[in-house]
Design brief:
The complex is a heterodimer of chains A (about 475) and B (about 110). By secondary structure, chain A is an alpha/beta fold. Chain A has helices spanning about 20-25, 30-35, 45-55, 60-65, 75, 80-85, 90-105, 110-115, 125-140, 145-150, 155-170, 175-185, 195-215, 235-240, 245-255, 270-275, 280-295, 305-320, 330-340, 370-380, 410-415, 420-425, 435-450, 460-465; strands at about 230, 260, 300, 330, 345, 355-360, 385, 430-435, 455-460, 465-470. In chain A, strand 8 (about 430-435), helix 23 (about 435-450) and strand 9 form a beta-alpha-beta unit. The longest helix of chain B is centred in the middle third of the chain and has 17 residues, at about 45-60. The chains are: A alpha/beta (about 475), B mainly alpha (about 110).
Chain lengths: ~475, ~110
């Protein structure tokens, strides 16, 4: 089987595909009709882009736009450059410079006085904007490893997201990003799952766990008021992989947790993080926060999802301008508490094979959740081993930043995944555990492409495997 | 264009191995996709039960069915779908049934 190999310019020249945008307009889809989601209109987009740029630059962005001294340290931290060391366009600094030069030319005073000196530049037309789109969406997984390693504190991840946001406002986005944003705006969840399908799948999983444990005491409550925990999930769990919901139900049952899922506001994922659209980010996050308030819960718990965790736990409150009143945590933190306080007991020998842990970018580097998953894994696995580098220095699964939903950039993504494949292979583990749905698919792609003898699992699956079900739980 | 070439037949697929022209799907295509993408040497009656259901659902609703619907229609438990299609319902079963790649975190 032959796959196209991306040349240095292959990705950068990817055309703008507006077929689904045109269809959405033709069908008068609500999000497009009322202007929440912008579609591409040929015309003077360069001028509109420059106008938006001038109005949107914040203080923190200005720092990242001006503080770079071009030392080149970021190059060594980027898996794109490490896999293509002869291609300078793969360095984070080059990618950031594509927006930086426009800022210098049109906003910063240095570029107006001495444009040649500060290498100022501009965008002239839609072709330039499309090229910019391919750079910020297609050659960066927004993993922020370069940000973490920058001695000047330049947040290239922030610059990339900012640029994505400006382009999103002009409809100059990859088709996959448009489609998912459309569904999330219109249905409140990124996979357009209907309420009926949602409820049916939950009932189905409840029945599966009842059969497994042999007791009808197991429940998956929906919209129950006054619980301790509001559990929010990734639509992927409903649509294609509900095993994780069954694991959660089983563990919550044994732990005696008072929990519920909301009927609305259950999607903790957020494509606003990937597209750079703060309004979408605010809308989706607010749905979750309002569900928690409506149901008067004591805590919001987020299922294993990297960008969902970052969006709901950290960024969402800012996007939505929402006063955080409740603790918001990853389910892995909840599991850690159960294990430490003895609410659940585990038998690690049931997970006998070697397990390594992949830190999700949005959870470790951008979410500061580093030791908690390790504390859990050390208790539930007999052979836990680190991969190197790890923790905040781990490499991206290569599917981050929404790249999984952008098929056009996949050849380059898999080419640079060589770094990840080498890192995985060196562990000698048979299972790679991650607490992110995006990483599951990203890593599964790497494993398949590089023919690695391993499988991806989530923390919840390993805990569920090792869980000792006491007799009183199945009465 | 990326493509699969197997047993003298050429099928155009996108970068993720999904059919470029979902309407050009035939049973022969399914067999070749299963071989190339899922490493399945043959499709059993159980595989076909899943594939035919997905195909019919897609033609009717222009949408990939949820895994719940796949299990309801075929009577298989959830784990059976993963046994049949190692890449799972979305990247395995839907791909073999000739659907375009589902949107979102998959």
């Amino acid at each position: 089987m032959k796959r196209r190999k991306a040349g240095p310019s292959g990705v950068v020249e990817a055309p703008l595909d507006v077929r689904t945008q045109a269809l959405a307009k033709e069908e008068e889809r609500p999000s497009v009709k009322d202007g929440r989601l912008r579609t591409y209109e040929p015309g003077d987009n360069a001028a509109r882009f420059l106008d938006l740029l001038g109005r949107r630059v914040s203080r923190s962005l200005a720092v990242s736009l001006t503080a770079c001294v071009h030392c080149g340290l970021c190059a060594e931290s980027c898996h794109y450059f490490l896999a293509r060391p002869d291609d300078p366009t793969m360095t984070p600094v080059w990618k950031a410079d594509q927006i930086r030069k426009i800022f210098k030319r049109h906003v910063d005073w240095t570029g107006r006085i001495a444009p040649w000196w500060v290498k100022a530049g501009t965008v002239r037309n839609d072709e330039d904007l499309n090229r910019l789109k391919n750079i910020v969406f297609g050659t960066c997984s927004a993993c922020r490893r370069c940000t973490y390693n920058c001695p000047m504190g330049v947040d290239t991840g922030l610059l990339v997201r900012f640029t994505r946001g400006l382009l999103t406002e002009l409809g100059i986005v990859p088709e996959g990003v448009f489609n998912v944003s459309r569904d999330q705006w219109e249905t409140g969840n990124q996979m357009a799952v209907t309420e009926q399908d949602y409820l049916e799948t939950l009932e189905w999983m409840r029945d599966e766990v009842r059969t497994e444990l042999g007791t009808n005491a197991v429940d998956i409550p929906v919209d129950k008021k006054g619980c301790d925990v509001l559990y929010t999930i990734n639509p992927r769990e409903i649509k294609f992989d509900p095993r994780s919901i069954a694991h959660a139900a089983k563990i919550f049952h044994v732990a005696g947790e008072s929990w519920t899922l909301p009927k609305w506001g259950w999607d903790q994922t957020n494509f606003g993080l990937f597209s750079g659209d703060d309004k979408l980010g605010a809308y989706v996050a607010r749905n979750v926060y309002e569900a928690a308030e409506r149901l008067r819960v004591k805590r919001i718990v987020i299922s294993e999802c990297g960008h969902g965790y970052r969006s709901t736990r950290w960024e969402g409150y800012t996007w939505a301008g929402y006063d955080q009143k409740l603790p918001t945590e990853s389910v892995v933190v909840t599991l850690k508490r159960y294990l430490e306080t003895g609410r659940i007991a585990v038998e690690p020998s049931r997970n006998a094979v070697a397990v390594t842990f992949h830190d999700s970018c949005n959870i470790a580097r951008s979410g500061d959740l580093v030791e908690e998953p390790r504390d859990v894994l050390r208790r539930v696995c007999a052979d836990f081993r680190e991969m190197f580098p790890n923790r905040r220095e781990n490499f991206c699964c290569t599917g981050g930043g929404g790249l999984l939903s952008m098929a056009e950039y996949r050849p380059l993504r898999l080419e640079v995944a060589k770094i990840k494949a080498d890192q995985l292979r060196a562990t000698g583990a048979m299972l790679v555990c991650t607490m992110c749905h995006n990483c599951i698919d990203g890593l599964a792609d790497v494993i398949k492409h590089y023919r690695l003898p391993m499988r991806v699992v989530q923390v919840m699956e390993l805990v569920s495997n090792a869980l000792v079900v006491p007799a009183e739980s199945v009465k | 264009m990326p493509h699969i070439e197997i047993e003298g037949l050429r099928i155009e697929v996108n970068e993720e191995g999904f059919l470029v022209h979902p309407d050009e799907w035939t049973e022969e295509t399914a067999r070749l996709l299963a071989k190339a993408e899922e490493n399945l040497d043959e499709l059993t009656a159980e595989h076909w039960a899943v594939v035919n259901f997905i195909r019919g659902y897609y033609l009717e609703k222009n949408l990939a069915p949820m895994v719940r619907k796949m299990c309801q229609a075929t009577g298989f438990p959830l784990m059976k779908i993963y046994d049949l299609f190692p890449s799972g319902p979305a990247k395995g079963a839907c791909k073999v049934a000739g659907l375009p790649k589902p949107d979102g975190c998959v």
